[in-house]
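[Automated response] Your request has been received and processed.

Submitted sequence:
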Amino acid sequence: MILPIIEARNVSKVLGSGAGQVRAVKNINLTLSGGKLTVLMGPSGSGKTTLLSILGCMLTPTEGSVFICGHATAGAGAERLARIRREHIGFVFQSFHLFPTLTAHENVRLALDVRGERRRRAKSRSRDVLERVGLAHKLAAFPRDLSGGEQQRVAIARAIVAEPSAILADEPTAALDTANGHAIMTILAQTAREHSRAVLVVTHDTRLLEFADRIIYIEDSALNREEAPASNVYRMRA
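Generated structure:
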């Protein structure tokens, strides 16, 4: 039996207190397996980002349990959760989150430096992954010298360089035009399929559905349906 990479069981999250209390996600059951790109669709305020943060161990659920590669995270302290994130989760965000004073190569290598990777090996792996996302010619470029699409490629390279079990992407194409958005989704689909990672993309952009292996809809803080895509453009091209 192959265990899911991420599993949520009856997960709920309450934010705020008193009159301002909000049930941000309600009774979520979800599994993410390697080799699949899952798209989580929903309108603003539906709970998408809160759920992603719980699955990525950045937030702890008020109720329910999260398992990463079969290991329960319930009761884990901040240090252990940070270790789980370092070992198993790569994050990609809408706003890139690159360090402006570091080159593309240094931004990616930083993800290995914090894991204690040896300097020579970290430099080599960072170069390799930047080449994989099409930026071999931009190693020495600073974020200010890169386009939005190039910055997001650096962010993806940083997320995947340590070979995490799962990639969680929050609106990764929202700041990009259609061509760059499709290029980013192709890289994420390739990461899922060819490297057996679980990839979850949170979005409200229906143009991304053609890259999905699974489509899950969230509304009013609860998952309300799942469907298979009509077609998968990445698999058709492969």
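Summary generated for your ticket: Strands lie at 6-15, 22-32, 36-41, 63-68, 71-72, 89-93, 166-170, 198-203, 214-219, 222-227. Residues 178-195 form the longest helix (18 residues).
If you did not submit this request, please reply to this message.
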